[in-house]
Amino acid sequence: MSTAGETAWQRLDIRVVYQGLARVALSLPAGILGITVGDDPIWPLIAGSVFGVLGALGTLSTWRTTRFRITGQQVEMHTGWLARRHRIVARERIRTVDVSARLLQRVLGLRTVHVGSGEADASFDLNGLASEQAERLRRDLMPGARNEEIEQTGRAGEPQPGPETVIARLRPQWVPLNVIGVWSVFAVLGPVFALHWLLRPFGVDLLDTAHDLIDGPSLVWTIVVAVLIAYPIGIALQAATFVMENWNFTLLRTGDGPDTALVTRRGLLTTRTVQRADGRIRGIAFDEPLLWRWLRLTRTKVLSTGLRALGEASVGDILPRLRLGEARELAARILPDGARPLEAELRRHPRGALVRRIGWAAYGPALLSGVLLLFTLSGALPGRWWLLPLTLLPVTIPLAVVAYRSLGHTTGGDYLMIRTGALNRRTVALQKRAVIGWTIQQSLFQRWGGRMTVGIPTAAGSRHYEAPDMSVDQALAFVAEAAPHLTDVTRPRSAPEERSGPTEG
Amino acid sequence: MLWRTLQAIFWAVGVLGALTAIYAYAEITRPWLGPVLLILAVVYAVNITVMPTWRYRVHRWEATDNAVYALSGWITREWRIVPISRIQSIDTEIGPLQRRLGLATISVTTASSEGKITIEGVATPVAEEAVDRLREITAATTGDAT
Q1: pLDDT at residue A147 above 60?
Q2: Helix (H) or strand (E) holding A77
Q3: DSSP code of A308?
Q4: A490, closest residue in chain B (CA to CA)
Q5: Which of A252-266, A460-474, B63-77 has the lowest mean pLDDT?
Q6: What is the spatial distance between Cα A247 and Cα A264, in angstroms, rounded to a whole number?
Q7: Residue A128: which residues within 8 A CB-CB, separation 6 or more?
Q8: Is residue A157 predicted with pLDDT exceeding 50?
Q9: Which residues contact A18 (CB under 8 A, 6 or more apart)?
Q10: Nearest to A466 by CA among A441, A443, A449
């Protein structure tokens, strides 16, 4: 086992300097061009060149000051010129290792290694390592690579030992599933506007040109044509992005004995490796937005402690969009114990929950128009604007029914299952041991209807899951079943409830 | 209860006062602010007269050897349970108004921010005693690594 003092500090590759110089060489002519060509200086060009030069200087100073080393237990880096920073991350905390390269870096054979520990801030970038070094680092930092290997650096380059079970690989059929969507149009809008602003200083107005090209009898017609053109392009772009991001997608389980972990590798230009230790996995969830539900597609998430739910982009997402059946098969293999909690039959919630949802659907718009009516009466709003929210009713009431139909809960094996959501139906299977308490809510109407909302705080996933509107019996049974190790806890729990009975009246 | 009433009164005076001032000085906002003021006045009236008593009658808490329980709320009631083994920290907080009235707020934190228990308006000696006891129990119970 190496101590901190023995391992030598490493620094970034010398080619970073060439990269900086190349950037200066590329940016300067652009700036000069911006000043000399034309009567007025072309500001975007000048700004670009200034940024380029500054960026290059930044890269050089990073190269000068960055040192890092990997010991048996932790990764250390210190960097910074004016503000020095020393950061230490324990190796067992490392969750993601991304290797990426921009065009210029790629030409020079450089890579950026981004090490993430699952938290939004406790991570660092090593900008500018030789590609072989980066690859070796990626292997070293991932699980299964033991301390001894790091010391015998010669061997560490080889594929890591330990059994690997491949759970899933990218299949061509997945591509169309992940491309369908209403939002493809917007994938085109971004680049088009970027191009528009880029070309503007040169006197080319892209939007006007486009407008002239597809000019028609009315604005609506123009928009329809534009969307019709943009949609296929958007889909193609999304397909390309998907393939690039998920190239070589592999989900596998590595390690042996108790020390296993799930590892995903993917990406063509940016290789992203995410590992989730099995010991930290607390459950699994399916997300099904409304549109996908009709197509029977789902997104799979793993609930795991020590991973931020938000922040570091979608670390919880473990598989791309899949057919439900396929996702279920894979989910069973993803969970370390091979359970299939997400397929369990769910208990329906009482009728009252449906009534409550329809009530919400009705009084939401009604309340809104009531507020608007008040404003109309006080003279702030003219005319009949206050009637507008009522037109939402035909949308909200079916949604209420959908929301009710998706409610469900049950327990089974080591897991408890909850399903909720109207627009985005989410089925969560959480291990019972991950429950760290209960919050049970009852509003005035719920008290009259004998229903409760059970909230489950947990350290994994999004930290809090809720099963709204169970009947009181269901809720008590659910709590008792879900927490057998808390039985002594749940027993006296009903006591304060009964005690509060008299005050209720 | 007195504490909550005072708090509600302070809030009501602050918010309503500010809005009325705007209402009086800026004529242009009158049609917009009028209804808002009206509704807020009703809400605060209920808040001052009904809410504190109601809450006082509902709120309960208890710390046993296994868990901490709390019941709170008035229109919406909420039970919270935290098993002792999942407690991460225990805090006591005393605000200026609370100090005058000899009250304290106890908060029990867990690994999930949603699973936190806050017990407001406990008499200071009782709070101290409860926190001491909880500290002993938590020290005796081994955490189960969540």
Answers
A1: no
A2: strand A74-79
A3: -
A4: B81
A5: A252-266
A6: 12
A7: A12, A13, A15, A16, A19, A59, A62, A63, A105, A110, A111, A112
A8: no
A9: A108
A10: A441
Q: Taking residues A391-400, report their average pLDDT.
A: 80
What are the residue boundaries of the structural domains of chain A, listed by start? Answer: 10-161, 174-241, 250-343, 351-504
pLDDT digits (tens, 9 = 90+) for A176-214: 777 766 666 666 677 777 777 766 666 666 666 666 666
Which residue of B30, B57, B72, B112 is the best one to mutate when testing the A interface, meaning the one whose CB has the most A CBs within 10 A? Answer: B112
Percent of chain A with pLDDT over 90: 0
Range B116-120, long-range pairs (CB < 8 A, 24+ positions): B117/B61, B117/B68, B117/B70, B117/B80, B117/B82, B118/B70, B118/B72, B119/B61, B119/B70, B119/B72, B120/B59, B120/B72
What's residue A84's pLDDT?
75
Q: What is the pLDDT of residue A183?
A: 65
Length of chain A: 505
End-to-end C-alpha distance for chain A, whole angstroms: 68
Residues of chain B contacting residue A490, judged by C-beta atoms under 8 Å apart: 81
In chain B the domains, ranked by start, together with CATH numbers, are: 2-54 (no CATH), 60-140 (2.30.29.30)
In this prediction, residue A418 has a pLDDT band, given cuts at 50, 70 and 90, of confident
Determine the 3-state secondary structure of B5 from DSSP: helix
A434 three-state secondary structure: helix
Nearest Cβ partner of A437 from B31, B60, B80? Answer: B80
Mind listing the pLDDT tens digit for each residue in A358-372?
Answer: 888 888 888 888 877
**Rounded to 5°, angle at Cα A292 from A287 and A293:** 75
Contact B35 A455 (CB under 8 A): no
Q: Pull the structure tokens for residue A439.
A: 């919050």
How far off is chain B from A195, nearest CA to CA, in Å?
Answer: 43
- A to B CB pairs, distance under 8 Å: 114
pTM for the model stands at: 0.67
Write the CA distances from A9 to A127, A155, A257, integer angstroms. 16, 19, 33
Which residue do the tokens 């098969």 mark? A329
CA-CA distance, B143 to B146, in Å (whole number)?
Answer: 8
Q: Which residues of chain A have a Cβ shorter than 8 Å from any chain B Cβ?
A: 305, 371, 374-375, 377-380, 433-434, 436-444, 447, 455, 457-459, 463-464, 486, 488-490, 492-493, 496-497, 499-500, 503
Determine the distance in angstroms separating the CA of A372 from the nearest CA of chain B, rounded to an integer: 10
* CA gap A166, A176 in Å, rounded: 23
Cα–Cα dist A268/B98, whole Å: 60
Helix ranges (DSSP H) in B26-87:
30-49, 51-58
Question: Average pLDDT of A204-231?
Answer: 69
As a whole number, the mean pLDDT across chain B is: 73
Scanning every residue of chain A, which has its alpha carbon at the shortest distance from the alpha carbon of B60? A496
